[in-house]
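Subject: Sanity check before I submit

Could someone independently write out the structure tokens for this chain? I want to compare against mine line by line before I put it in a report. The sequence has 828 residues.
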Amino acid sequence: MPPAWTPDLSPSATEKQHEPVPLAGTSRTDPGTPPPPVSPSRPPLGRREGLVLLLAGLLVWASFLQFPDGIATVTGPLGWQQAHGYFLRQGFQAGEDFIFTFGPLGYFFGTPYDAELFWWKYAWELLVKLAFAVVLLRVAVHLPGCVARLSFCALAAYLLPLSTDALYTFVLLAMGVLLLLESHWAWPALLALTLLAALLALVKFTFTVNILLILAIASAYWLVNRRPLAAVALPLLFIAQYLALWVALGQSLAGLPRYLRASWEVAAGYGEGMAVEGFPDQVYSALILLFLLAVLAVLVPLPRDRRCTRLAVLALFGVCLLLQWKHSFTSHGRASLRFFSFTALVPFLYLALCPPGRRWGLPRLVPLAACVALAAGAFVKGWVDYGTTAREFARLGSTRIVDNAVAAAAPCRKARELEALRGRLRERWQLPRVKAEVGPAPIDVMFYHGQGVALLNELNWRPRPVYQSYSAYTPFLLAENARFFQSDKAPPYVLFRLRTIFNRFPALDDSPALSELFRHYRPVLTEKSFILFKRVARRDAAVPPRDEAVVTRVVRFGEEVEVDSLPGRYQTVMLDFKPAPLGKLRAAAYRPPAVSIEVTTTSGQVATYRMIPAMARVGFLLNPLLQDNHDVLKLYAPSGGTRVKSFRLLAQGSPEPWFDPAISVTVKGLSDLVCCRLPESELNRLLYPMLKEVPAAVRSDLAVTSTLFDDTEVLLVPPVGEVRFKRPPMARQVVAQFGILPSAYLPRTMWETPGIRFLVDHVAEDGRVSTLFERRLDPERNEKDRGLQRLAVSLPARGGGEIVFRTLNVRGEQNRTDLSFWTDIDFR
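---
Independent answer below. Compare away.
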């Protein structure tokens, strides 16, 4: 039997004029396995041209490298990426111990630093990204002419690394093209290809779906072209290597169905749960690109000696482009840019599929050039729209290659730099009181970016399955988290911070799990804007909530629903939105229209929040209104809390084509919700840890809450607001720090705010008011007014009365960009 052919960088090797050599394990005389069709030959690369292409491939490899470059704290996506490194080290079971869109190898998708996984990540980048470069280089060999090959390599090196998702998915599409393009594969090459596919499938569940569709198309194509052994071997090799890697990573084979089920639930709910609006011109550009690529798929000349090639090409590109379209424009924003970096390179794959010698006339070249130009232009414009200057964008490619080359050449130095950064962040984000209380006991973190803080403090993190609450956006996922807190797996402690994404209704995220938290846990301390909850004994837990009253009615969009007159100290609401047939079609092809809830409080304040229909169907706490940690703590007070008087349901634009006009609303009044009541002294200690003295009263026209300025906990008191203290008898001086959060002036907002006035007044016992301190901060125009400001004020010799810290607008107009705060108020 002749030796099997192995792909190399010479296209002539795949396109001999004589009959190609069969796949290893087949024979020219095997029945039912006729020789594959003959493909026209392509002129071989010259030595100089081959060397130039090899150098271009090395640059592509260098640009693809993504070494660790950060450590998670409380911001950015590094939190979940760092979490997956922790899961890998701890041997957590995917689908049971954690549920997310990423699988057992999800850590290697991102760039967080993990000391125990650094060298594994280093090897992943060198080897897997080398495989990526080889795949793209093999595609480049099939392009007609040096200009097309170098243009393809240059665009791939510059555009793809700016979106990791686009890089991975384009490589998958290129692998699919090679499976259609190459007339023959040797067993070692086929094993290498399926091994790479299995590794990527274990990184992210959506990659698994993409790969399975690509392999199904390629297998069907090979089967139609009378290569049954290869058609069967391709998916079997992938499945065998996927299962082998799954077991090698410490995952249970019995848990694989559960992982696939849970991951499918996350992927299926993504369209509704994570839908975000963006720039309309990007959507129009993407639709034009899809149309041009569809025209090209019909016009591209393909080999005439193979069966169903056109159908296979349409299926392959259609599947990959539609998946990329949905993923990019569901959660519109910077994520949409991955679509344009992806589609800018797709026309080159059409060129690679074209047999040599077939002419490309203007009817084909014009849409091809238009695709590349439009996609690249939209990508650059998108970066500029999101705040990157043209000069900064131009330097991204060269800077990345240089930085990657330096990191690849000196990994030990990179590791030392990241370890030093980790030490600084550990010092900054230390939670000494939390660590002293928790010790080695298991703890969960209910804050979507708080995992990094738990890991920096080396807490024994044992999360609920959907560890990012915002991803629990289907009834199945919500129930998984609730069952966790009902089971024996529930940890003794929970580190909590009420915060959501995309302006969702705050109590909507993980609402059943929140109810279990309030029933079984009590707050014990607050530190750096986190609340530490401790599980109470089973006998002290709140009994399951009893429905005092249930009111069900049907309302329409825009109709006012009064709830203040309904019974129950606590009220939950279930909303059942029914999509119309057009709404289901829109959700499948694009994304569903946004739905929101407008609430009016008993004090007359109006706020509008995003509503996720699948989450609202399960039910959520409406009264009292939870907007921040202060509202959560007030649940444990004998009385108080912001009450919702009424609400309205709103839809983006006109709801008629997309929804059934009738919305079922069920309001339940509950007798109890929390496990205990806290005395006022303990509650004030939890509410105001940043103040040395407990205030007598805190008021503001907007919500008062605690937050962080750098690593300092501050009390946010927007104007017009005041913090009132009874003057201690022996106090002779008061010191404090104050300022304005940078988000009020950086980046520049649409409001021209003249700043805020900070005052300290003494209110004597007879009611006379004297101002002890006044200063106006205008950080937008005066850099000296930025950061923490300090004051030290001598108090009047005559004792008694009150000391009041006020915040006022300069023009007396309320402005939401004026985020003023006080902290470290101390009487001496």
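---
OP: Matches mine. For the report I'm noting this point. The CA atoms of residues 373 and 778 lie 45 Å apart.
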